[in-house]
């Protein structure tokens, strides 16, 4: 379990609790509360290779081929704050380039209220 309090000057999250094998919970400064499970977070990795930027397969995909036979459930190996605006998550599949900005996290908040706002 990682927990850290953020710079009170920073907007966005007030408190983040990250359980490596469970998920991430964020209390936002505006009183909103978000909970993300790990699979969801891993699938929403914002890095260029995961988000499919440029439409090219990532190095990992090339190595494993398009249909990897076995994918372990995603788990967090470690996490570190990046400045005042993001956290970098290292996953058990070796992926470590995902920098989850708080803006991105708020955007992908899976709660009903936010899904309604996003129109999905
Ligand atoms: Zn990624
Ligand atoms: Zn929400």
CATH architecture: 2-Layer Sandwich
- Which small compounds were modeled alongside the protein? zinc ion
The level 1 CATH classification is Alpha Beta
* Largest sheet properties: 4 strands, antiparallel
Structure annotation, total helices: 4
Question: What would you report as the Rg, rounded to the nearest angstrom?
Answer: 15 Å
The helix/strand class is: alpha+beta
Mean pLDDT: 83
Number of strands: 7
Identify the overall geometry.
globular
How far is it from the N-terminal to the C-terminal residue, by CA? 32 Å
Low-confidence stretches: none
Helix content: 10-25%
CATH topology tier name: NE0471 N-terminal domain-like
Beta-strand percentage?
A: 25-35%
What string gives the helices and strands in order?
A: EEEEHHEEEHH
Strand order of the largest sheet: 1-2-3-4
How many domain units? 1
Structure characterization notes:
With 120 residues, the protein is of the alpha+beta class. It has one domain (2-54, 73-113): NE0471 N-terminal domain-like (2-Layer Sandwich). Helices cover 21% and strands 32% of the residues. It has four helices and seven strands. The strands form two sheets. The protein has a four-stranded antiparallel beta sheet with strand order 1-2-3-4. It has a three-stranded antiparallel beta sheet with strand order 5-6-7. A hairpin with a 4-residue loop joins strand 3 and strand 4. The longest helix has 7 residues, at 112-118. The protein is globular and about 45 Å long. The model has no long low-confidence stretch (mean pLDDT 83). The chain binds zinc ion (2 copies). One zinc ion binds at residues 45, 47, 49-50, 95, 97-98.
